[in-house]
């Protein structure tokens, strides 16, 4: 039965070509149906401000995210449904932040923009981590790259990574990184903080520690072994403030959030879809191999790295950016992390951050979403 459904969907990619392409339609696919998120959302929101005649379709997994709140100008369609194939086949523009299914087929006059979900990432991905990828994934990643017309790149470093490891040899949109806009503008920060203090019932006198590790390929949770109460004690001794910890797991393992024991001071935030807003809300971050460390760097906020499985991770995945060169205090043990907090110097940290970002060739354009939207209107919709 499953094979029959797959066969029908494959055929639909060709049958629906009898319908004309709608020159005003955009299909948005974020993390394979996880909602209206990240770079695609930010770019499309700006596109709609500029041209309200555009028709915007967002693909959503109904069984998990069917109740997701979308702007009234964005229509939800079930991810990987026959209807979603029709929308794909008849849309002028596809925009997403992850790979499309292996049987997707783009028509000649359609445009596909890949606005990937990681800006600056330390860990190796795609072709650079091919030994950790399934044969099936490599196959559809290569086909996805072949269909892509443009990739959004945040820096000269990231552009080089995309060329080397994403099986991609096409054009780039080098106008900044939309997800960094909120960090660089800072215009909505007060509103965002107020929103999340109310959501989590956290008083204004308390500071926020955000723990947001990435996932492991085997989805093992043993590496998330921090004693958050001890860490908050150390932070309190450092700055004489009370702290609360938010735990935000990667979307791939957010269904395992019950692994942690929560309290009034240790709060589950894995259900929050907008990671960028959580970062704006938080004062200090602890992560491991996640690109979120560089989000924090955009705001000149303090980020600590805790990676107790670092040696094993290097063997299995390795890194594009050596951890010894990074500006973030690094620890393999709880004790090392606590010492890093005690000995932290904000002035040295800011100096190291500035030098590091400069060396990466980062484009810190606070209006990248708007500038990319203008580019799309001109190059795709011929406005």
Description:
- The relative contact order is 0.13.
- Helix content is 40%, strand content 16%.
- The N and C termini lie far apart (46 Å).
- The chain is globular.
- Strands 3-2-1-4-5-6-7 form a 7-stranded parallel beta sheet.
- It has 2 domains: 24-177 and 365-379, CDP-glycerol glycerophosphotransferase, N-terminal domain (Rossmann fold, 3-Layer(aba) Sandwich); 185-360, Rossmann fold (3-Layer(aba) Sandwich).
- It contains 15 helices and 13 strands.
- With 383 residues, it is α/β, with parallel strands linked by helices.
- β5, α5 and β6 (150-152) form a beta-alpha-beta unit.
- The model has no long low-confidence stretch (mean pLDDT 92).
- The protein has helices at 2-15, 38-50, 62-65, 82-90, 135-147, 156-165, 178-185, 189-200, 228-239, 275-281, 292-298, 310-316, 334-342, 346-360, 368-379, and strands at 22-29, 55-60, 74-78, 91-96, 111-114, 150-152, 171-173, 206-211, 242-247, 266-268, 284-287, 302-306, 330-331.
């Amino acid at each position: 039965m499953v094979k029959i459904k797959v066969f029908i969907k494959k055929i639909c990619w060709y049958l629906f070509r009898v319908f004309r392409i709608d020159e005003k339609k955009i299909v948005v696919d974020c993390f394979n149906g996880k909602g209206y998120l990240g770079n695609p959302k930010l770019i499309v929101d700006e596109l709609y401000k500029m041209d309200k005649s555009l028709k915007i379709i967002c693909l959503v997994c109904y069984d998990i995210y069917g109740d997701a709140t979308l702007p009234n100008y964005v229509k939800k369609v079930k991810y990987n449904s026959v209807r979603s194939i029709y929308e794909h086949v008849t849309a002028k523009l596809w925009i997403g932040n992850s790979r499309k299914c292996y049987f997707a087929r783009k028509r000649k006059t359609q445009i596909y923009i890949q606005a990937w979900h990681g800006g600056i990432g330390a860990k190796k991905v795609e072709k650079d981590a091919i030994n950790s990828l399934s044969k099936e994934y490599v196959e559809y990643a290569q086909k996805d790259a072949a269909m892509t017309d443009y990739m959004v790149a945040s820096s000269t470093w990231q552009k080089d990574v995309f060329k080397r490891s994403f099986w991609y040899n096409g054009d780039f949109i080098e106008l900044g990184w939309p997800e960094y806009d909120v960090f660089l503008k800072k215009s909505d920060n007060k509103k965002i903080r107020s929103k999340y203090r109310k959501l989590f019932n956290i008083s204004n006198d308390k500071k926020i520690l955000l723990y947001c590790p990435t996932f492991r390929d085997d989805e093992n949770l043993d590496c998330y072994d921090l004693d958050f109460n001890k860490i908050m004690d150390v932070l309190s001794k450092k700055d004489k403030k009370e702290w609360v910890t938010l735990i935000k797991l990667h979307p791939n393992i957010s269904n395992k959030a019950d692994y942690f024991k929560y309290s009034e001071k240790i709060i589950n935030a894995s259900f929050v879809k907008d990671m960028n807003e959580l970062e704006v809300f938080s004062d200090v971050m602890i992560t491991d191999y996640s690109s979120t460390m560089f989000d924090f760097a955009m705001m000149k906020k303090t980020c600590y790295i805790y990676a107790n499985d670092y040696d094993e991770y290097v063997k299995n995945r390795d890194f594009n950016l050596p951890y010894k060169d990074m500006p973030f205090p690094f620890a393999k043990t709880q004790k090392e992390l606590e010492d890093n907090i005690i000995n932290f110097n904000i002035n040295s940290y800011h100096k190291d951050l500035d030098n590091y970002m400069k060396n990466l060739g980062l484009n810190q354009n606070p209006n990248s979403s708007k500038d990319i939207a203008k580019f799309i209107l001109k190059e795709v919709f011929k406005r």
